[in-house]
Design a protein that fits this description.
The complex is a heterotrimer.
Chain A lengths: L7 H9 L5 H19 L2 E4 L1 H16 L11 E5 L26 H8 L3 E6 L33 H8 L5 E6 L5 H7 L2 E4 L19 E6 L2 H11 L29 E5 L10 H16 L3 E5 L7 H16 L18 H12 L2 H14 L4 H24 L3 E5 L15 H6 L5 H6 L3 E9 L2 E9 L4 H14 L12
Parallel strand pairs in A: 2-3, 2-4, 7-8, 7-9
Antiparallel strand pairs in A: 1-3, 4-6, 5-6, 5-10, 9-11, 10-11
Chain B lengths: L3 H4 E12 L36 E2 H13 L3 E2 L2 E2 L1 E5 L9 E5 L5 E9 L2 H4 L6 E13 L3 E3 L2 H4 L2 E5 L6 E7 L6 H17 L12 E11 L9 E6 L2 H20 L7 E6 L4 E7 L9 E2 L6 E2 L2 H9 L5 H12 L3 H7 L3 H14 L2 H18 L11 H12 L5 H14 L3 H8 L7 H14 L1 H8 L6 H11 L6 H13 L1
Helix pairs in contact in B: 5-6, 8-9, 10-11, 10-12, 11-13, 15-17, 15-18, 17-18
Chain C lengths: L5 H10 L6 H18 L23 E2 L9 H5 L5 E2 L2 E5 L8
Classes of the chains: A alpha/beta, B alpha+beta, C alpha+beta.
Amino acid sequence: MGPPLGTLAGLRADLDAKRVSSRELVDACLARAEALDRKLHAFLGLRAERARAEAAESDARRARGEVRGALEGIPVALKDNMVQRGEPTTCASRILEGFVSPYDATIVRRLQAAGAVIVGRTNLDEFAMGSSTENSAYGPSRNPWDVSRTPGGSSGGSAAAVAAGIVPLALGSDTGGSIRQPAACTGIVGMKPTYGRVSRYGLVAFASSLDQIGPFTRSAADCATALEVLCGHDPFDSTSLPEPVPRFSEALTGDVSGLVIGLPKEYFVEEGVDPAVLAAVRAAVAELEKAGAKTREVSLPHTKYGIACYYLIAPAEASSNLARYDGVRYGLRAKDAENLTELYCRTRSQGFGAEVKRRILLGTYVLSAGYYDAYYRKAQQVRTLVRRDFEGALAGCDVIATPTMPEVAFRIGEKSGDPLRMYLNDVYTVSANLAGVPGISIPCGFHEGMPIGLQLLGRILDEATLLRVADAYERCTDWHSRRPPETA
Amino acid sequence: MSRVLEKYEAVIGLEVHVHLKTASKLFSNAPVVYGAEPNHAVTPVCLALPGSLPVLNAKAVEFAIRAGLATHCKVHPQSVFARKNYFYPDLPKGYQISQYEEPICTEGWIEIELPAEKGGAEGPQTKRVGITRIHMEEDAGKSIHDEVVAGTGSAVDLNRAGVPLLEIVSEPVLRSAAEASAYLRALRSILRYVDVSEADMEKGQFRCDANVSLRRRGESKLGTRTETKNLNSFRFVEAAIGIEIERQAKLLDAGGRVIQATLLYDPATNKTRVMRTKENADDYRYFPDPDLVPLVIDPAEIERVRRELPELPDRKRARFQAEHGLSEYDARLLTGSRALADFFERAAKALGNAKTVANWVLRDVLQALKERELEIEQTKLEPEALAALLALVESGRVTAKSARDLLPELVERGGDPAALVRARGLEAVSDTGVIEAAADEAIAASPEMAARYRAGEEKILNALIGQVMKKTAGKASPAAVKEILARKLRG
Amino acid sequence: MSRITRQEVERVAALARLELAPDEAERMTSQLDAILDYVALLSEVDTTGIAPTSHAVPLRTPLRDDRPGPPLDPDDAVRNAPEREGSAFLVPKVIEGEES
């Protein structure tokens, strides 16, 4: 096994200078994946042969001077809830066993148009429902910093793959924190763009009004490069934003002087958060102040309702989104069902795991006759208030800084018996999904040898400012360049 | 039935499902085709593949606006698509995208002609039927129960899944099966007029669910209703409603209660059976579809559609009466379908004599179509060709009889009337010499008839005319023959 | 007082076409009860006159031109089917009108 793959920027420079070929990169990536995955279980599938062939094609293109785009020849991993033509997609669920997609997700097209080589599919909580990848039907992923701990979730496989230097870029999806939280758990950069920035066409839906695809990288600069490839209007997604995509890389000036960082008072209370996490976040903010940023206290008064609001809306949408898994057209079908109702009930009961069933039940319940107004409609009204909180707060500051999660990565099995306790882990991340605003998590320290994440939230469509602040912070700290010792 | 309706008043509301004639489906660019092999016209959206997403068809929206305006509805600047959740093999997503709380159109009406028994001697009476709402939704696929295809199971074909539908809901103001049928015919005619649907019932493009309840005459409180599903011909609608009225009346007469239920009509046995009752009704868990955003329509767009709306039957009828001097009866018949009205108008314009065209269309053209089981849309006869034929008649170059004989062929195969007349040698005999010779022959052959005529029995002339016509093979103008014969007999 | 009974959980499971083993139904009931108890927190928020939010980002309905595209290759369309006959999906007998 060779050394960890470098950053996207570094690999691009190596490829451009012909110090390395795409084929060599992909070989190195596959070798690391195979060697490390016995410990990490970051991947649900590698497309080794096809990836090698595509890497060779990329090298041939490069030799002809036909570089497609910013990711030419770069190995990339996809969370296994994004479809690629001719490849399986499982969503880490038994119910999609055997399913091979006959079409490409829009982000797959975009990655390919930029020259990327997709090397494999990463592990997740089943249908992206969870915060630890423990809900994967194929077993949990493990944290490269400490394999007894989770890498977070639901995009834990993608986070682990980037943190372990297997790929410089992996995609995740974030419905309530599923990119930012695992990024924090594994000490890397993870961004959830503004809702509608990245097409959801070909992303298997969990909660349609909250889901958003985003990148895991090892630096803010790499994140900017990835976003330039991923973002953009898609006529196949009715919730895709038509706004033009800025050159995010150009926002990375290193200059934060005069920029105002809002510190929501509701997030900086000692209750329910590890003091070490809070201290690291305060220190990070102080670092940014040294670099010229200003801080001010802001208020997001409906913060305490975020989790409740989220755990009504997301399961409701999920209960309907997951109705299509019925054993008729694809995926698992229970054997020996005598009639239709049996076919449905057995297939779905055998195919879905406990957490997915729990959320389907919850969602079905809150949408059912007599409960809709009290639960679903109420949650949507509170969602309006959460959104207004952000509009109000971000009128008085440029970005909002918070911890990404209330503690460092927890141990596998630690919370799996208590779903509600697991949900409360999302306390800092769900609001951004409810409000549609972009959010990024970047490494800002360590506690007990485990990374801590700083979350920055910004205005709708203003990913550029988040990236500028994240990049400026990286310029004065080295947290982001630390690597898990065991995978070096 | 009329006896039942003396005691009870039937309260009938109809929900009509109409396929819109778009080229692609409501939420995907899959082609809309009929009769293709199973699953040969599907995209990831139609199959509800993981990750697929809906995008709304602009044409379907325009058609919905058009249908709303044609039925005097309010067209709402904002409407919302919702998911109706239930499990069924021909419903691939496990939910149907429909409109629920905020439909695109509400509060309209159409005018129907009441069935003759009520119209009585005063001529046709009309009734205004309220339209509660019109909303857009996607059709489901088809389950095929054919044992050859599916064995002991059912086969599922999703070609139809996602075809755009309008659901048009009437107010419960219809009072008999015949009224319901009249409403459906009027509605179908309007939808065809504004060209939003072929509304071909055999193809399932125009289907109806009927809500029926009874109440004692004089009562204002509504009775318990039943819903009979998926009636796909006018005949079935009338039959099913008639049966349901009888059934409910019998129940009520016996002191029983009607149970709220969904029924299915079986044309083979002409009976309805209970599909499910309210107790086991599904809970559809409607909620706004988070894959779609509210449909916002610019008022300017509604105005554009309004300006471009084709003339509707009522207005066309009035115009035909005023502009072409037609009777109300004729105008009503001619505006029965837009295709017929268009045919008439083109022919009338080409000939410049609307009344003549109206007579020929209503009598001869419709007769020829009926004999051949054709619709006006299917005839090969161009309206201009009909006008050309009638012009030949008017100018005396062809007799009406010859023209009438030619018409079925023209209706079936089309062609140029003048050329056909020439080819068949049907030009009217205009050579008076020929007619005079024939008249002389006829008089010579029937001296006794000539004598009777001269004695004042003028009617006998017709027999002589008949003989001359025979001798000239019908190609002589009857008027010319009459004139020549009379002159010769008097002379 | 519990917020959801086992009976209700079973009714909802039937609606969602899920089959719960007895111990599973018991466990789900207590877990859902705890979750519903937690989310009841929302009832303290005054939402009078507050419009519900379906999407946080303002979006305008995109409309697609009515141009048909190529359908899926029929083999691709049904390749994933657990059971099929020709190009149709096969299911246990559907009784017309039965919304399973």
